[in-house]
Amino acid sequence: MIYELKTYKATDGNIAALKKRFAEKTMPIFSRLGIEVTHCWDNLEDPNTFNYLVRFSSKEAEKIAWDAFAKDEEWKVVKAESEKASGPLLASQSTLYLSSTDFSPNA
């Protein structure tokens, strides 16, 4: 398994809108495209940030899924609609790529 720990930082004043879009619109699109979200967290040290963990069976599956997401017409509409009122919701994002150790309890 390949895991990605994603960090999303919202533009000023838009964390609630970013999280709402993610929960209500992005996650269903992810699910349809085979992007499995395993957990989401609020960042207690930075309330303008949230994290989530996704997993894929392989690097190939990861690449196929993210390529499909980037091209997805529903996502393009959702993103555009959600940014009409106050512009972009996402200021920055980062990814930490992970794989389980052989001694991980859930490997």
Question: What this model shows, in words?
Answer:
It is a single chain. This protein has helices at 15-33, 59-71, 73-82; strands spanning 2-10, 36-42, 49-56, 90-98. Helices cover 39% and strands 31% of the residues. The N and C termini lie close together (9 Å). The protein has a 4-stranded antiparallel beta sheet with strand order 2-3-1-4. It is globular and about 45 Å long. Helix 1 packs antiparallel against helix 3. It has one domain (2-98): 2-Layer Sandwich (Alpha-Beta Plaits). It is α+β, with helices and mostly antiparallel strands and 107 residues long. The protein is built from 3 helices and 4 strands, in the order βαββααβ.
Biggest sheet record: 4 strands, antiparallel
Q: Spatial order of the strands in the main sheet? A: 2-3-1-4
Cα end-to-end separation: 9 Å
Would you report the number of β strands?
4
Give the helices and strands, then pairings.
Layout: E1 2-10, H1 15-33, E2 36-42, E3 49-56, H2 59-71, H3 73-82, E4 90-98
Antiparallel strand pairs: 1-3, 1-4, 2-3
Helix pairs in contact: 1-3
Concise account of the structure shown:
Helices cover 39% and strands 31% of the residues. The chain is an alpha+beta fold and 107 residues long. A hairpin with a 6-residue loop joins strand 2 and strand 3.
Question: Which features does this protein show?
Answer:
107 residues; alpha+beta; Alpha-Beta Plaits; four-stranded antiparallel sheet; 4 strands; 39% helix; 31% strand
